[in-house]
């Protein structure tokens, strides 16, 4: 067994024992901060001046952390109570603490604030009868309602000015732009400790008297930034010139370039001395330097210095362009932009205050407060005086002898203000955190509060002390070395907010049991990059969403394969409790990613392959099929006259009608030609039909009885009771539980019941309002969290976001999708925000409709870009430091050489940190890891496609998708199988069963739904079906005889523009061409170019369309007929028809007696290229893009005749008219064939 006795380090002892000072503990990942907190509390409970646990305020950031803290403290106290060697008085005192712990202030900030409000509500005359608005979605709906109330009022009473405001912040796609801005301002304002002052200050940076040059913002805010940027640019130019002076080759090629740059930057510095906007702008626009000389490089020349200088030269233009972004127009023009900005922001603040007031009114009316209210009300209470005294503040200052704040790097300004109001003059503040793990900027966490104290406390005054905990007790030596190798090269004060020096880096300290050799463990870290194939053509024609999905599937498959390899090889994990190694379990593995976007596909693949998985907050609740059925059911109970949800329920296991039966019901209306009547009315008519199918009628009657009973029940009972009644009477809950993944499906349905109960308990009543609530969730792309059907203690692979993993640890950590790009919206959005700098906007000129970015916005953008990159670096730090034994990372690329080129061009400064330019241009974890551990100086080729890091145990391997193979794991719940030889009569019986031939096998292989395009294959040469098609892409949709699933794109090595794609594009052009005159070739060329410009097709596909042949159609008799009857032409005309099976099987599939027995019908659906409806009859035409020769022409006509005959039969039944002509038009030879022509 392991030795659990703790040996404290000197720094840990200081953190436990030091008193009478404000202490900031900078605790690196795995440094045991929770144990230290517990031990410090215990020491203070047992010192000579012993405290009680209710003398502590211990604040953390999650309920789980607070609960864990209480449990661990209670366990430690009980150990002491039961330890007979401890002084009896101390044991008695500790026994008392056991009774005090349940009511102790060990909680989140919000829970503490809630207790303050409940205790001291009266000092601010606040109504104590309130409920906490803890549901994010309910809060969002209330906020949106407040916004709608406000804008309705402004549109009614201040239309002109408000419309101008809305126009500036709303794009062409929808009108949510202004709402997004209002909501973001609210989020920044309420986490600021001086909300009103912050709002008042938003317009000040845009104010000026005569010119922008004279403004306070230009002189005192912008100019210091410009000077710094120019100074950095000057240093780059000097560096480049030094490289030229030091290397003959570099001088030959680039000396003129850097000489020009040197002369320009001198003039630029002189221009800065003028402090004049136009003078600086003019000099910026004068930037022009000589190009690199073009000489042939001498053989065997060393280009190392030249390559460095080329990179520097390339960065100069980018730096100048960044400066130009602050000076987009001459000063006269920018003055006008700023005047518009002043109006817009002043109006915006006015609307914001109206919104905040209306949101507050709605909360008061509904007796609710939100989490932000908790902090603001607490501050009000602590600051409020009663009879000249701060009653509440004095109470807590006297009560709390020690205040501990965990995760201090994540506090916001309001929370810090609460801490300071409680502290006053006492040196009783103990703060624990790690700036390297500050990852909650999106919640307005303020890491500058931690870094400010970190810098101040390093002075180590009598009042304040900084303690550094760097020793890592969690991770293996290989993990620690790898983490240090990465972050010593990418962290500094400017990017990352901390220098990764000796005081910040991890020090390996993981303890192992006596006698155990950790070198026997496999702790080598893995950096796997999947090489996704993407040819140039594929790049041009690819869909980004499809590419991302294919990449995700490849990553998931590779992850699953690696887990299977670990399990099947009995990989050895060190067990801290056992003090030795053991076989790996699924629960030893955690999969982390930046987002949860791949969770749905991951669950599907893992479940399919018997890999048990638990996803933390799987937010795809409404996408599950069982929920879609239940929401549809609730929709038709609310209003049955809704076709889509009604059909969803009818097709579901609740009613179990198939598509053919649904079609039979709809065809009751065929006399009307076009079906406008809703499906519910059609059902009622069908039940009155004397010759209705008895099985269908029976199902419908039973369903309507239930539906009507549910509608009556809903009017008199709660929503939760209604849902439970549906579960009980339909058996849908039990049915879902019996399906694959049934445990999760049942949990989802149970959760719907609970969500409904929770919704109604919040004073929201009624089925209709609940459905509106869900509709708004879907509309806003929000979702509810899927409940977990697996206990945390189960042996399952854990899947979570990196944010969700904070504070946790796992033997094996798999970091997935290293290539995922960082979110750039924080610094590229049209409207940007910052807690210090305020708001940066773009201004729309109402006359020219041109949009101008302001210097204020550019300044915020620069700051937010660095802040965003810093937080993403810290997010990577959190991810990597979760691992106890081994890190397995998966990235991807389409070009391995290209990523090496990028990683090899970095420069490492004298301080060991990669140059800021390279880091600033990084947008993925993959590049951060690659350039810090796999640059040319760091990597070594081990074998083909596999590299190792020279300094730490890291192996990088390129993996082809063709090498990814996932096979189902053995089900742990099933017994091992073995082969048993059968004999005698039993063997004969088994063989008889296995050899049985089903007479209706062809019907089993045929779906009840066929498209006309698919059915053409039935009429074609039977041998062609066996031999396959020349272009398999064209047959991917065939239902009739599809023998295999489509190969996933990530496993496909090539892609070209197929004939099927060309054919579809050609049909689209023919559908859109105008018929008000005879179309000419130039008309088709113009239309296609418009479609390319509007992204309706790619230019590569457009080039494949023969417009000369398209124009030829309209020189033909058929084309003229189409133009002459344009008002009677319908293009892309959809038709459906129920056909007897016998009419489709013209071969030997159904013969003799069997053919007479079969009465089944198949629903056939198709789209006719064109229909001309004349009084005397109908003409149909269909275009074909096949290659036609004299030899295959008759075969093609025979192939497509069956398809056109089906079209004719369907359109004739619908229109009740005779078909006069059936034209096949072959575009390649501009020739029409009338199939009805004798």
TrEMBL record:
Residues 533-551 have a biased composition (Basic and acidic residues). One of its GO terms (cellular component) is DNA helicase complex. Its EC number is 3.1.-.-, 5.6.2.4. It catalyses: Couples ATP hydrolysis with the unwinding of duplex DNA by translocating in the 3'-5' direction; ATP + H2O = ADP + phosphate + H(+). The keyword rRNA-binding does not apply. ATP binds at residues 27-34. Keywords: ATP-binding, DNA damage, DNA repair, DNA-binding, Exonuclease, Helicase, Hydrolase, Isomerase, Nuclease, Nucleotide-binding. It comes from the Bacteria. Transmembrane segments: none annotated. Residues 532-551 are annotated as: Disordered. Residues 6-476 form the UvrD-like helicase ATP-binding domain. Residues 510-807 form the UvrD-like helicase C-terminal domain. GO terms for biological process: double-strand break repair via homologous recombination. InterPro entries: AddA, DNA_helicase_UvrD-like_C, DNA_helicase_UvrD/REP, P-loop_NTPase, PDDEXK-like_dom_sf, PDDEXK_AddAB-type, Restrct_endonuc-II-like, UvrD-like_ATP-bd. One of its GO terms (molecular function) is double-stranded DNA binding. Pfam families: PDDEXK_1, UvrD-helicase, UvrD_C. The keyword Hydrolase applies. Its cofactor is Mg(2+). Belongs to the helicase family. AddA subfamily. Heterodimer of AddA and AddB/RexB. The heterodimer acts as both an ATP-dependent DNA helicase and an ATP-dependent, dual-direction single-stranded exonuclease. Recognizes the chi site generating a DNA molecule suitable for the initiation of homologous recombination. The AddA nuclease domain is required for chi fragment generation; this subunit has the helicase and 3' -> 5' nuclease activities. This is ATP-dependent helicase/nuclease subunit A. The lineage of its organism: Bacteria, Bacillati, Bacillota, Bacilli, Lactobacillales.
């Amino acid at each position: 067994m392991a030795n659990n006795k703790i040996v404290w380090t000197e720094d840990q002892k200081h953190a436990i024992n030091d008193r009478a000072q404000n202490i900031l503990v900078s605790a690196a990942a795995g440094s045991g901060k929770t144990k230290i907190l517990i031990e410090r509390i215990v020491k203070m409970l047992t010192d000579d001046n012993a405290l009680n646990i209710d003398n502590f305020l211990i604040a953390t950031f999650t309920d789980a952390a607070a609960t864990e803290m209480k449990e661990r403290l209670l366990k430690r106290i009980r150990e002491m109570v039961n330890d007979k060697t401890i002084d009896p008085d101390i044991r008695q005192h500790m026994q008392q603490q056991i009774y005090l712990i349940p009511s102790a202030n060990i909680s989140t900030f919000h829970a503490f604030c809630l207790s303050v409000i409940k205790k001291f509500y009266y000092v601010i005359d606040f109504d104590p009868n309130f409920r906490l608005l803890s549901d994010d979605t309910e809060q969002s709906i209330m906020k949106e309602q407040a916004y709608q109330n406000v804008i309705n009022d402004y549109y009614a009473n201040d239309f002109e000015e408000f419309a101008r405001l809305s126009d500036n912040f709303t794009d062409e796609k929808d009108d949510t732009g202004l709402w997004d801005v209002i909501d973001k301002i609210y989020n920044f304002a309420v986490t600021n400790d001086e909300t009103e002052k912050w709002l008042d200050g938003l317009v000040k940076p845009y104010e000026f008297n005569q010119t922008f040059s004279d403004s306070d913002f230009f002189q005192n805010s912008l100019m210091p930034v410009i000077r710094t940027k120019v100074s950095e640019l000057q240093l780059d130019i000097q560096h480049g010139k030094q490289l030229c002076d030091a290397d003959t080759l570099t001088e030959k090629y680039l000396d003129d370039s850097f000489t020009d740059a040197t002369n320009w930057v001198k003039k630029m510095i002189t221009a800065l001395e003028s402090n004049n906007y136009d003078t600086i702008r003019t000099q910026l626009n004068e930037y022009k330097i000589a190009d690199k000389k073009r000489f042939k490089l001498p053989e065997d020349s060393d280009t190392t210095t030249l390559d460095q200088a080329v990179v520097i030269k390339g960065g100069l233009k980018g730096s100048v362009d960044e400066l130009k972004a602050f000076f987009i127009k001459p000063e006269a023009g920018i003055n006008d932009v700023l005047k518009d900005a002043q109006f817009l922001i002043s109006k915006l603040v006015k609307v914001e205050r109206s919104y905040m007031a209306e949101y507050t009114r709605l909360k008061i009316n509904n007796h609710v407060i939100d989490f932000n209210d908790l902090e603001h009300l607490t501050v009000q209470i602590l600051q409020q005086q009663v009879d000249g005294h701060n009653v509440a503040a004095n109470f807590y200052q006297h009560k709390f002898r020690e205040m501990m704040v965990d995760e201090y790097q994540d506090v916001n300004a309001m929370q810090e203000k609460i801490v300071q109001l409680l502290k006053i003059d006492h040196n009783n503040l103990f703060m624990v955190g790690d700036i390297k793990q500050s990852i909650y900027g999106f919640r307005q966490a303020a890491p500058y509060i931690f870094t400010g104290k970190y810098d101040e406390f390093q002075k180590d005054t009598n009042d304040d002390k900084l303690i550094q905990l760097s020793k890592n007790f969690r991770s293996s030596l290989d993990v620690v070395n790898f983490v240090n190798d990465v972050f010593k090269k990418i962290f500094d004060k400017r990017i990352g907010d901390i220098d990764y020096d000796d005081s910040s880096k991890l020090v390996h300290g993981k303890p192992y049991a006596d006698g155990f050799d950790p070198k026997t463990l496999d702790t080598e870290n893995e950096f796997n990059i999947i090489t996704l194939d993407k040819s140039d053509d594929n790049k041009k024609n690819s869909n980004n969403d499809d590419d991302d999905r294919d990449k995700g599937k490849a990553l998931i498959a590779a992850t699953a394969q690696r887990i299977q390899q670990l399990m099947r090889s009995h990989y050895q994990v060190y067990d801290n409790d056992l003090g030795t190694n053991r076989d790996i379990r699924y629960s030893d593995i955690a999969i982390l990613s930046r987002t949860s976007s791949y969770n749905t596909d991951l669950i599907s693949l893992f479940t399919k392959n018997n890999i048990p998985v638990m996803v933390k907050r799987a937010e795809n609740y409404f996408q599950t099929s069982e929920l879609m059925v239940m929401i549809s059911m609730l929709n038709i109970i609310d209003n049955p006259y809704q076709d889509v949800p009604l059909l969803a329920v009818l097709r579901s296991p609740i009613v179990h009608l198939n598509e053919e039966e649904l079609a039979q019901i709809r065809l009751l209306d065929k006399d009307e030609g076009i079906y406008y009547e809703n499906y519910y009315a059609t059902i009622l008519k069908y039940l009155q039909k004397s010759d209705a199918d008895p099985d269908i009628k029976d199902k419908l009657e039973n369903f309507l009885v239930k539906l009507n009973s549910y509608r009556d029940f809903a009017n008199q009972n709660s929503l939760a009771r209604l849902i439970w009644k549906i579960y009980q009477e339909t058996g849908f809950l039990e049915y879902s539980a019996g399906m694959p993944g049934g445990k999760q499906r049942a949990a989802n349905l149970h959760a719907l019941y609970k969500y409904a109960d929770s919704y109604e308990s919040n004073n929201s009543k009624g089925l209709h309002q609940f459905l509106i609530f869900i509709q708004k969730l879907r509309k806003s792309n929000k979702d509810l969290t899927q409940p977990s059907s697996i206990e945390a203690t189960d042996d399952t692979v854990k899947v979570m976001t990196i944010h969700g993993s904070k504070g946790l640890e796992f033997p094996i950590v798999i970091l997935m999708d290293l290539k995922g790009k960082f979110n750039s919206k924080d610094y590229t959005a049209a409207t940007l925000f910052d807690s210090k700098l305020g708001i940066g906007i773009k201004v729309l000129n109402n006359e020219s409709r041109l949009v101008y970015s302001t210097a204020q916005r550019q300044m915020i953008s620069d700051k937010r870009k660095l802040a965003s990159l810093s937080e993403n670096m810290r997010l990577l730090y959190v991810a990597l430091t979760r691992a106890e034994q081994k890190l397995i990372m998966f990235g991807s690329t389409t070009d391995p050489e290209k990523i090496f080129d990028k990683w090899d061009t970095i420069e490492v400064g004298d301080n060991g940190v990669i140059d800021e330019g390279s880091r600033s241009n990084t947008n993925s974890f993959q590049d951060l890891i690659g350039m810090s551990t796999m640059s040319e100086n760091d990597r070594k080729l081990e074998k083909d496609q596999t590299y190792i890091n020279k300094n730490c145990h890291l192996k990088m391997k390129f993996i082809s998708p063709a090498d990814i193979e996932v096979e189902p794991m053995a089900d742990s719940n099933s017994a091992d199988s073995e082969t048993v030889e059968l004999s005698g009569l039993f063997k004969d019986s088994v063989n008889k069963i296995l050899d049985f031939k089903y007479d209706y096998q062809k019907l089993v292989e045929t779906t009840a739904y066929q498209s006309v395009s698919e059915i053409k294959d039935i009429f074609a040469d039977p041998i062609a079906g066996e031999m396959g098609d020349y272009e398999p892409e064209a047959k991917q949709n065939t239902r009739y005889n599809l023998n295999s699933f489509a190969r996933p794109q990530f496993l496909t090595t090539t892609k070209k523009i197929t004939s099927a794609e060309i054919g579809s594009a050609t049909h689209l052009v023919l559908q859109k061409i105008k018929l008000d005159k005879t179309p000419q070739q130039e008309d088709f060329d113009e239309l296609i170019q418009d479609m390319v410009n509007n992204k309706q097709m790619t230019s590569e596909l457009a080039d494949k369309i023969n417009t000369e042949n398209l124009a030829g159609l309209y020189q033909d008799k058929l084309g003229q007929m189409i133009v002459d009857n344009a008002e009677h032409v319908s293009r892309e005309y959809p038709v459906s028809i129920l056909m007897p099976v016998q009419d489709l099987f013209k071969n030997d599939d159904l013969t003799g007696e069997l053919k007479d027995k079969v009465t089944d019908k198949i629903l056939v659906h198709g789209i006719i290229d064109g229909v001309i409806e004349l009084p005397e009859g109908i003409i149909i035409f269909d275009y074909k893009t096949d290659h036609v020769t004299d030899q295959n022409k008759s075969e093609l006509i025979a192939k497509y005749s069956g398809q056109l005959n089906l079209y004719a039969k369907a359109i004739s039944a619908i229109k009740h008219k005779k078909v006069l002509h059936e034209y096949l038009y072959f575009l390649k030879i501009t020739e029409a064939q009338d199939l009805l022509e004798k």
